[in-house]
Please model this.
Amino acid sequence: MNRCSPFLFAPIAAALVTSAPAQQSNDLSAVVGHMQAVQTMSATFTQTDRTGQSVTGKLLLKRPGHVRFEYQKGVPLLIVADGKALTMVDYEVKQVQRWPIRNSPLAALLDPGKDLSRFGKRMPTDNPNVISVQVRDPKRPEYGTMTMIFIRQASAPGGWTLNGWVALDSKNNRTTVRLDNVRYNMPIAQSSFTWRDPRPRRKS
Model:
């Protein structure tokens, strides 16, 4: 498993994004409506890296700006966003990396107030029950791209549910995340987005 960018999430897109219906509108109103209707979300996930290795875990999301990726037992990684920064904690090597949420493709997922029409593009699909949205900042190619896949589901907010996403970083490394057991708008405690710092304390 690629330990350098475990949250950058492609096989899903390969199956859904095609060169057909070129006349398909870039209207993102359905996706925007869904995202604005979601305050919280929980799901289980399967993450597959560029070598084909997979791990599983649990995802918690609370908008705006909060997310937690807790991996299966035996994978000593934790990824948490606390509303301002995205933090990756590697408990095996006692390392912590932090960067602004806006510097990650995940910003599109965490901020329902963002105008997707400015930096998101609806990709053609051959299935009317699937919406694929590619998000990238042309002024910041180093942030990579993220393609979110939404599936029509009448019981979900706005009639759509997030099925997963695909990310491609600046070095063309692909990672896929597939979601299952998705639940929306249930209470999630703010304490879910805290983390334990594994770094040794400096002696004063």
